[in-house]
Amino acid sequence: MSALVSVKHVSKQYRQQGETLQNVSFELRAGQVLGLLGHNGAGKSTLINALLGALEYQGTIRINGYEPIMQRDKVMRSLSYISDVNVLPDWMSVAQLLNYAEGVHTGFDRHKADVLLRETNIKPRTRIKALSKGMKVQLHLALVIATNTQILILDEPTLGLDLVYRDTFYRHLSEWLHDDGRVLIIASHEVSEIEHLLTDVLILKHGRTVLQAPMAAISQDYFILEAHDEYRAQIEMMEPLSWQKGLATTKWLLPSKYAAQVKDLGDICHVKLADLFLALQKEVS
Questions:
Q1: Percentage of residues in the chain with pLDDT exceeding 90?
Q2: What does residue 92 show for φ and ψ, rounded to 5 degrees?
Q3: What is the pTM of this model?
Q4: How far apart are CA 54 and CA 282, in angstroms?
Q5: Helices (H), 36-132
Q6: Is the dihedral of CA 36, 13, 20, 8 positive or negative?
Q7: Which residues of 111-136 are buried (b: 16+ CB within 10 A; e: fewer)?
Q8: At residue 117, does pLDDT exceed 70?
Q9: How far lies 31's CA from each of 28, 130, 177, 188, 203, in Å?
Q10: What whole-number percentage of the chain has pLDDT above 70?
Q11: Other beta carbons within 10 Å of 28
């Protein structure tokens, strides 16, 4: 199965800021969901803009076999993008936007869009500028799903949304992912919120890749040990990525190669993506 998204040795350097993206590589095939993680300034937005063909870069990017800058028209036939900033035309009504999408996109399924929007409080005659942020995100996702897009990039899509809107958004997104041939890239600070969706993770810091792995490998490669402080000196020799002090115990994030050595020192727990993300952000300079 060929890769729908191929990124090879991609870098981006700005004159004033220096190199903000350094030799990033990954491939995504149908069915994969990549979590793109990193603090502000890590290079997430630069990478997304390169995928969208919005800036020049060094290296190779192919979206469905096409180069994002020189073949942007072909790329956009199968790729959609939703950010935390509203890009829908405020002066249009919802119905006018749907009519426009139906007229310009041959693959737009108006019935599917109408069905999705009937599950929300969005009314066809409402102007987009009168919609709340949550409604605008739902409308945007309905447009994406109804165009049968193959590759979707989300950049902090639920930022500022309440729990009800977030639940509806992720439910519709999960339904979209169930169809064959989909690829999703989602950048978010809400690591725990998106973890259940992911098949793979890419963590950036200062433009560099500090972790790239399938989600299944995380629980195989790392674990958390909660042990009494009397074992501190012994555990500190086992390359802990991080630790969290409690009242009488400490939680240690350790590589799996030490699991057999510590099984009698305390309780072993599965590591969560958020734990690993925070540890790697602290560890790598």
A1: 63
A2: -85, 155
A3: 0.89
A4: 31
A5: 44-51, 72-75, 94-104, 110-118
A6: positive
A7: eebeebbeebebeeeeebeebebbbb
A8: yes
A9: 8, 36, 7, 19, 20
A10: 97
A11: 21
Q: What is the pLDDT of residues 139-194, one digit of tens each?
A: 998 998 888 789 999 998 888 778 888 888 888 888 888 887 899 999 988 899 99
CA separation for the pair 82, 145 (Å, rounded): 12
Both tokens of residue 253?
């994030």
- Block residue for tokens 């949550």: 134
- Say how far apart CA 19 and CA 37 lie, in whole Å: 18
Q: What is the pairing mode between strands 222-228 and 242-245? A: unpaired
pLDDT higher than 60, residue 283: no
**Beta carbons of 99 and 143 less than 8 angstroms apart:** no
At residue 21's C-alpha, the angle toward residues 206 and 29, to 5°, is 115
Neighbouring C-alpha atoms within 13 Å toward the C-beta of 209: 17
* Rounded Cα–Cα distance for residues 260 and 233 (Å): 17
What are the DSSP calls for 175-219, one per residue?
HHHTSTT-EEEEE-S-HHHHGGG-SEEEEEETTEEEEEEEHHHHH
